[in-house]
Q: What sequence folds into this?
């Protein structure tokens, strides 16, 4: 698993609205309509995350969820696996009316 080049990362980001390359990771913050929706998003995504065997570093504060994606096996840099995980998280977030 090789780290993506800066050009590959910006190509990927062009198709991932809301995501940024920040502090060496793919980063996204969502805001939901409630704490319950934020939790429901995290719970709904969990089985798919586990199936992918690639896990976000993420946290929740009230109605917000913040995620950082890197690949441990690639010196904590961004790889295609992180892009794949970002797409997966995005598909779930859509179902829980994320505002941003
Ligand atoms: N999650 N973000 C992230 N990065 C990894 O390298 C990673 C992971 N989840 C599971 C995983 N690697 C496994 O492939 C290894 O720990 C066996």
A:
């Amino acid at each position: 698993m090789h780290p993506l080049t800066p050009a590959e990362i910006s190509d990927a980001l062009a198709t991932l609205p809301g995501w940024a390359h920040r502090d060496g990771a793919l980063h996204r913050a969502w805001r939901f309509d409630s704490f319950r929706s934020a939790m429901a998003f995290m719970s709904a995504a969990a089985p798919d995350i586990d199936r992918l065997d690639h896990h976000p570093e993420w946290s929740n504060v009230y109605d917000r969820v913040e995620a950082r994606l890197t690949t441990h096996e690639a010196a904590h840099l961004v790889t295609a696996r992180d892009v794949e995980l970002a797409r997966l998280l995005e598909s779930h977030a859509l179902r829980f009316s994320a505002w941003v």
Residues 1-6+32-100 form a domain with the Gyrase A; domain 2 fold (CATH 3.30.1360.20). The mean pLDDT is 96.
